[in-house]
């Protein structure tokens, strides 16, 4: 559910609140668990690619758009982890 400031709230299939994301205005998002604890962030580079960091600021990996709506995912060592289809 969008909260109007670029953030989203997340719920499980029972309707239980799970946490939220919050846009920081520069292409990045911060993530919080259901108790409001900071969990980490993602940072977009403007071309559909995103880098992911944990709550300590450690790089965790990245996603890369392949131009047709699909995304490929890589871990922090650069190993390919899979992809998500846009369909």
UniProtKB/TrEMBL annotation:
Residue spans of biased composition, Polar residues class: 39-50, 60-69
Compositional bias per record (Basic and acidic residues), positions renumbered to this chain: 72-87
Region: Disordered, residue numbers: 1-87
Entry superkingdom: Bacteria
Name of the protein in its database record: Uncharacterized protein
Lineage, top ranks: Bacteria, Pseudomonadati, Verrucomicrobiota, Verrucomicrobiia, Verrucomicrobiales
